[in-house]
Amino acid sequence: MENIRQQITDQIVAAIEAGTPPWRKGWSSPELHKNGLTQASYRGVNQVILAMTPYTDSRWLTWKQAETLGVKVKRGSKGHRIVKMVEVDRSRAASVQEGEVLAEDKGKALIMKGYVVFNAEQIEGLPDLPRPTNKVEPVAAVDALIEGMKGTGLTVLYGGGQPAYAPLTDTVKMPLPDRFHTTQDYAATMLHELAHASGNKKRLDRLNLYARFGSEEYSREELVAELSSAFLGAQLGMPMAASMMESHASYMASWLTVLKRDKNEIFRAAAEAQKIADYLAAWAPLPDLGVCKEPELNPSMQHPNPSPARIRHSA
Length: 315
Prior knowledge:
The protein is of the alpha+beta class. Helix content is 34%, strand content 16%. Strands 1, 2, 4, 5 and 6 form a 5-stranded mixed sheet that branches. The chain has a 3-stranded mixed sheet with strand order 8-10-9, with helices on one face. The protein is globular and about 55 Å long.
């Protein structure tokens, strides 16, 4: 049996040590990575894995899916491994190729199975990536999200020098929008702070109100919020704010400590970030990207709170 979690963690640690976490690459593709056959976006850690690749096309196919579409993987192409969760009979667990047993119970085993996908740029015969027909203005979507979160009791105050979320008062504090280099910088930074706000007890009940600045728990929350804002930003075709990247450089050493200590950490963080992104997206008029069933990392995770109704945003 392979140690898939360790291999993926080692890849991500190497990327961070090289200077740039994979989710900070500005999402070289114009949208979330997705399955080229089903058109559904990948979720959780698979987005992080595919962000480490150099391709600008967001579509991916397995070898078999390429054959299904009547196209062909280019000779010599190297695929990239992503993961999915599968349940098998316990007696068959040891024989699953490219798999790692996560849990066993009675006659069943839960396995993280790796499988290889190829980018559209590695495939002959695929048409060019079509332009999205349901493009959403990023700032308008974030404005709608803010209004929706206010309906849950969140306060948003403008002014001051540093963006922050104060959990004890349930308040997001933001510099005035014109203090940011671009409106997209403002929107991306707001997504990060709203990700923190999602952890309030009245929402996803995730935050430890007394986590000390610089502690591992504090750093974990920063990692989760950063991943969540990256997922949402990619869904909107919006790069991570340069100011956010600079302000979080100090967290990189602590992230490395956490990731090196526990091979499960990046999987937990990515699953939690996906949960947050799903929660926040329910407030904004985002494109409906569906759910990619094949690489779903955590299919058993259900939203603990009822999903808020979508809010229509008047342009």
